[in-house]
Amino acid sequence: MASRDVVSYDTPLSRALKVLAGLFLALYLVWTLLPFFVMFVSSFKDLLEAFKLPAVGDWAGITVFFEFTPTFKHYTSLFTENSFGTYILNSLIAAGGSAVISVIFGSLAAYSLSRVDFRGKQDLFFWIISTRMAPVVAVMVPLYAIFRSLDLVGTLPGLILAYTTFNLPFAIWILKGFFDNVPFAIEEAQMVDGSTRFQAFRSILPLVAPGIGAFVVLCILFAWNDFLFAAIIGSGGAKTLPVATRELVQPQNIQWGSIMAAGVVTTAPMMLLGLVIRKYLVTGLTMGAVKE
Amino acid sequence: MTDVSPISANPRAVAAQIFRARAHSAEVEARPQSEITNRPRSFNPPMPKRYYYYLMAPAIAILAFISLYPFFWLIVMSLQDVDIGGGEWVGFKNYVKLFSDGRFLDGWWLLAQYSVMCLGLQVGLGVLLAVVVNSSKYEKYLVTALLMPMMMAPAVAGLLWLFLYNGTFGWYHWILQSVGILDNASILASANTAMYAIVLVDVWQWTPLITIIALAGLKRVPRDQLEANMVDGASPLRNFFAITMPNLYPVLLIAVLLRFMDNFRFIDSVLVLTGGGPGSATKILPVYLFEVAFKFFKLGRGAAIALTLLIVTIILGKLLVRVFEKPQNEKG
């Protein structure tokens, strides 16, 4: 823990600043967390109760928000009237499949990229990373045409492959950083002792295993949260949660209760996973620019 | 020098060996002096590279299939008139048309507006938040709370905000009306406010990313400089601009570029919230591209638009990678 401000005078100004800072922080937290709260609470409300609002300007009327009798019917209807069970499974298979493929091949590639130098390596690297950063819609135009000719549109393998377009480069880019931090001397010592190259590679895997595990989770998160690929490439046969949730919005009849419940079902697992890999989350979200 | 044994039965093998050895020494000599002395290679066994290439091959092959091949396909498609049935060559017609396509140019202009508004708000709020969080006792918990919006699928976030913005039962609509900012008009249905509405959702979801990046930058600010400056009588505000900010710039640049590219990348929440409307008030370029390619299935025209979008992204990416690599060079 770094030391706090060594010099801190308690002047009126600094005290005022502190109060302001606290106020700002509190307001920001409310702004960040309120939507979650509304979503969570609304998913237990009956339709009419969810639509209750106080009169404009009637701040005391906010209590209306809490006047309801909790109901689970939106959650049950997700699984009875809609087949959210299937969609959850689709999401799991598509996200998990692409994550596993990406991390297995990604770690092999990241390891070798970290260990070998050759002409054009920077260019290769740039190509890999630009694949990850390309706008999804732009990538999807040719991918859709190709997948259609291969009959991959609307299938889970197609969706897995589509997710791999952003997960594999991501895995290579991040995992290379991990392997860079493992000294080559370890493998060297192993090889001097008579290991083969592959055994030497396996011997350093435990050192990066936690990171690799975390990035399987992170790849799952990115794929799970995707909407565009799922809406176009997965349309029909491979409907995932975000797309299914979106489809609850019908022009004449928007089922808000079900949408909020579906939102909770889609968001909650990812939030839990995020907490589990909290340590690597920041690294992953910032593409390795920040390491905690 | 390599020792060539005269007993060797295969002169070809001997020649190959000599050739390899020469090529290798030439390679070593060709390296700049600094590289040889500064980065000694601990290890140089015969033919080490081939092994690594084998390990790389599957990933490169997959990437080639899902990124390089589609890229060439994209170029081909952009020169064709493709719809559901198939394509015929039309040369550069798709591109020529773009210049007279008002919505294409508007799309770029709206994308620029959208990005600048998002980034301005996110950087401002994000840095302020980072400074406040950095001096808080509960930093760890605060960061965890701030990470939460980023875990949510952007499409779901869009739906959630659609609910909050709703003109008849949306709580945010009610709050804005109660404060007096808004009259009865629906937020998403009027062209004046729709753009701000989608910006706000992006700000809600992604400001914390700037915050965590800035937070990492703040940790790197040298304390001794801050203290020395303080002793010399500088106010905290002056301290912030004279010492903290210059130290923040490099990481902030990364943050801004990352977010900038993400604004091009993700349009999930915009599609869900407005779908580009009302009219085409929020039809930023990727949304327009989505409409052309996947609503009207004009894939050829879509490909031409996609290519322009890709080129801009690649330029931005080149910038980003350069910024990324800088600290590493300084370290070594």
TrEMBL record, chain A:
Give the record's keywords alphabetically: Cell membrane, Membrane, Sugar transport, Transmembrane, Transmembrane helix, Transport
Matching PROSITE patterns, A to Z?
Answer: ABC_TM1
Q: What residue stretches are annotated with the ABC transmembrane type-1 domain?
A: 88-277
Q: Does the keyword Membrane apply?
A: yes
Membrane topology of this protein:
Multi-pass membrane protein
Q: Where in the cell is it found?
A: Cell membrane
Pfam families found in the cross-reference section: BPD_transp_1 (PF00528)
Q: Which SUPFAM superfamilies match?
A: MetI-like
Query: In which broad location class does this protein mainly occur, judging by the first location in its UniProt entry?
Result: membrane
Q: Transmembrane residues, as ranges? A: 20-41, 53-72, 92-113, 125-147, 159-179, 200-224, 256-277
Family annotation (InterPro entries):
BP-dep_ABC_trans_perm (IPR050901), MetI-like (IPR000515), MetI-like_sf (IPR035906)
- Function as written in the Swiss-Prot or TrEMBL entry: Part of the ABC transporter complex MalEFGK involved in maltose/maltodextrin import. Probably responsible for the translocation of the substrate across the membrane.
Entry similarity comment: Belongs to the binding-protein-dependent transport system permease family. MalFG subfamily.
- Protein's recorded name: Maltose/maltodextrin transport system permease protein MalG
Native source species: Albidovulum sediminicola
TrEMBL record, chain B:
Which interval of the chain is the signal sequence? none
Segments forming domain ABC transmembrane type-1 = 108-320
Q: Determine the domain of life of the protein's source.
A: Bacteria
Membrane topology category: Multi-pass membrane protein
The keyword Transport appears for this protein:
yes
Keyword annotations for this protein, in alphabetical order, are: Cell membrane, Membrane, Transmembrane, Transmembrane helix, Transport
> Keyword tRNA-binding: yes or no?
no
Q: What residues form the membrane-spanning segments?
A: 51-76, 108-133, 145-165, 196-218, 238-258, 302-321
Q: Known InterPro entries for this protein?
A: MetI-like (IPR000515), MetI-like_sf (IPR035906)
Q: Specify where it is mainly localized.
A: membrane
Family matches, as Pfam families: BPD_transp_1
Location comes to: Cell membrane
PANTHER family in alphabetical order: BLR7065 PROTEIN, SPERMIDINE_PUTRESCINE TRANSPORT SYSTEM PERMEASE PROTEIN
Family the entry assigns: Belongs to the binding-protein-dependent transport system permease family.
Output this protein's name. Sugar ABC transporter permease
